[in-house]
Specification:
Length: 166
């Protein structure tokens, strides 16, 4: 299994990847862990180190990659068999991000400040108009150009149906 999951912040990428990884006994790769240095969401890795990490991870037999960074996800796509795009409505993403702030100051084992969470929510709210590889238009382009199995899941029920059938 070589699957890439993309979507906006709060769309459920990590949630789905974790459950698929458990179900299929497949290693999971978080693009946040590749993009950011350990410990938080404030220091980016050197681009050369990011490339080395991606080359090593994508060469393994099985993986599930998840994240918002289209430019990093794209580097896994030549080896991927499946691309899943979680295109859930903003209101769902917004509610999930709000819950993330209430549950803990940590996400994925990384510290996230109140200010950082507010910035994330503002950034995520602009998904449909955001330029760059982490926006809707970039994800759509990745989805449309991918030659393997493509799944565009636009509701929580579609995500659950996919997971149950996997």
């Amino acid at each position: 299994m070589r699957t890439v999951i993309i979507g906006n912040s709060g769309s459920g990428k990590t949630w789905l990847a974790k459950r698929l990884a458990e179900k299929k006994a497949t290693p999971m790769v978080h693009l946040d862990d590749i993009f950011w240095l350990p410990g938080g969401f404030n220091e980016m890795r050197d681009p050369a180190e990011v490339s080395r990490i991606i080359d090593t991870a994508s060469a393994t037999k099985n993986w599930i990659v998840e994240g918002v960074y289209g430019n990093l996800a794209q580097q896994f796509l030549p080896s991927a068999s499946t691309l899943i795009w979680l295109e859930l409505p903003w209101v769902v993403c917004q509610q999930r991000l709000a819950l993330r702030g209430l549950e803990s100051k940590a996400h994925m084992g990384r510290e996230q400040s109140e200010a950082g969470l507010r910035e994330l929510v503002q950034w995520a709210e602009n998904y449909s108009s955001r330029q760059g590889s982490s926006g809707h238009a970039a994800h759509l382009s990745l989805f449309e150009s991918f030659n393997g199995q493509r799944l565009r899941l636009c509701s929580e029920s579609q995500v659950l149906e996919y997971l149950n059938a996997a």
